[in-house]
Design goal:
The complex is a heterodimer of chains A (98) and B (321).
Chain A: H1 2-19, E1 23-29, H2 35-46, E2 51-57, E3 62-67, H3 75-84, E4 89-96
Chain B: H1 2-22, E1 35-41, E2 53-58, E3 62-67, E4 72-77, E5 82-86, E6 99-105, E7 108-113, E8 118-123, E9 128-132, E10 134-135, E11 141-142, E12 145-150, E13 156-160, E14 165-169, E15 175-179, E16 197-200, E17 206-210, E18 215-219, E19 225-229, E20 248-253, E21 259-263, E22 268-272, E23 278-282, E24 293-298, E25 304-308, E26 313-318
Parallel strand pairs in B: 10-11
Antiparallel strand pairs in B: 1-26, 2-3, 3-4, 4-5, 6-7, 7-8, 8-9, 12-13, 13-14, 14-15, 16-17, 17-18, 18-19, 20-21, 21-22, 22-23, 24-25, 25-26
Classes of the chains: A alpha+beta (98), B mainly beta (321).
Chain lengths: 98, 321
């Protein structure tokens, strides 16, 4: 029984990785309400290799960055990109796009 | 000992009260309130709808609107009837990606394109004429131009947002001079902190919306710094009192020479005399997570047109009687 459960878990993990179509990063950034700010971040990120799309959730203060399959960014890299746009990244979460 | 300290404290409180009540940091409204006479728009991509309007300018009888996320300019009569589109999405000459503040001057439309890093110039009918500048931080190059003013002789004064400077170029785009240090923010006179827009008065005086320093800076026609205003000492102290700002995103000079400033995070336009004395304030509050008054233009009959970013619409205001 334990072996069956283990196999199921491994299969699930494998399929998630297999079918993941990239990675989504949710970046918490202050001051997104002003388009001069938000557009600056959007402009910077969309020029970055591997970034597929940039969207904003103004209610939650999030920059939502989707990157291509096989591409990853570290928190430090994303922090630097946001800083280059004139802002401070407070936190980051990461999840696969399925 | 205790008594002398108490006396000193009382003296300080009295002095502070007198200063605060009498000083110019908390001016009263000097005019009847402006009246909202019309709005039009709403979110969308059909004619007359907007997706994040960020700029306005007027000719004698027409209103030009930067419809930013739709990557186009829309033209209306002053009653709000749609007339035509200008520009289309793209990064080739004459194409737009993120148009911001606009200027009409010398029978031409000047568009600051924040993503393409150029100033696009069109005839008022919409024919593309030329573009000025290119991406970069050298003389004559831009990093996210937010707005532009044009002098009678055709010289351009560009708010070069990420380069932290105002550039003066001739009508062909050749560099003449700049104010501010490239890439360096500052809160003192002639330094900038993400400048967003410029406007020029009939005598050549240049007004700069010094965006994140929450102030207006004024440069005299001879190029010297003249004066500044916005909160105590105009050194990036923001607030919602009359005469204070919370991110200045647009500026225009009215037919009487008064200066109208889009005060974005306070959801209002503020009106000042040319020397910076507060006159009036008006605007619509926001219901959205963002804000309303982002850009302003004044017609020759003193009607004020405001680009309302949060509500994707145009506001039209008239002076109170």
């Amino acid at each position: 029984m334990k072996k069956v459960m283990l196999l199921i878990v491994i299969s699930l993990l494998w399929s998630t990785t297999l079918f993941a179509a990239g990675t989504q990063y949710d970046l918490r950034v202050d001051g997104l309400a002003c388009p001069f700010c938000a557009y600056g971040i959007e402009k910077k990120l969309t020029k970055t290799d591997g970034v597929e799309s940039v969207a904003f959730d103004l209610e939650k203060g999030l920059v939502i960055v989707k990157v291509k399959e096989g591409m990853t960014f570290s928190e430090a890299q994303l922090k630097l990109l946001i800083e280059d746009s004139g802002f401070t990244m407070r936190s980051m979460t990461e999840k696969p796009i399925i | 000992m205790f008594r002398s300290k108490l006396l000193l404290y009382l003296l300080f409180v009295i002095l502070a009260t007198v200063l605060l009540s009498s000083c110019a940091w908390f001016p009263a409204v000097k005019e009847p309130p402006y009246q909202l006479v019309k709005t039009w728009g709403g979110k969308g991509n059909s004619a007359g709808k907007f997706n994040e309007p960020t700029g306005v300018a007027v000719s004698k009888a027409e209103l030009f609107v930067s419809d930013s996320r739709n990557a186009r300019i829309q033209v209306f009569d002053f009653s709000g009837n749609f007339l035509r589109f200008i520009g289309e999405s793209g990064n080739a000459a004459g194409q737009l990606r993120r148009p911001m503040n606009l200027t009409v001057a010398n029978e031409e439309l000047y568009v600051a394109d924040y993503f393409n890093d150029v100033i696009q110039v069109y005839s008022l009918q919409g024919q593309f004429l030329r573009d000025i500048g290119k991406p970069g931080s050298e003389a004559g190059e831009f990093n996210a131009p937010g707005g532009v003013a044009v002098a009678k002789n055709g010289d351009l004064f560009v708010a070069d947002f990420y380069n932290q400077r105002i550039q003066q170029l001739d009508s062909k785009g050749s560099f003449i001079r700049q104010w501010g240090t490239t890439g360096e923010t500052g809160i003192w006179a002639s330094k900038f902190n993400y400048p967003t827009d410029t406007a020029i008065a009939s005598d050549g005086t240049l007004y700069v919306a010094d965006g994140y320093s929450d102030r207006v800076q004024v440069i005299s026609p001879n190029g010297e710094f003249s004066h500044k205003w916005g909160g105590p000492f105009a050194i990036n102290i923001f607030g919602s009192f009359n005469g204070w700002f919370a991110t200045v995103t647009g500026i225009d000079v009215g037919p009487q020479g008064n200066v109208f400033v889009a005060d974005f995070y306070n959801d209002r336009v503020q009106k000042f005399t040319p020397d910076g004395k507060f006159l009036n304030a008006f605007g619509l509050p926001t219901q959205a997570p963002t804000h309303t008054s982002i850009a302003v233009a004044i017609s020759s009959d003193d009607t004020v047109f405001v680009a309302d970013y949060a509500n994707h619409q145009i506001q039209v205001w008239r002076p109170g009687q």
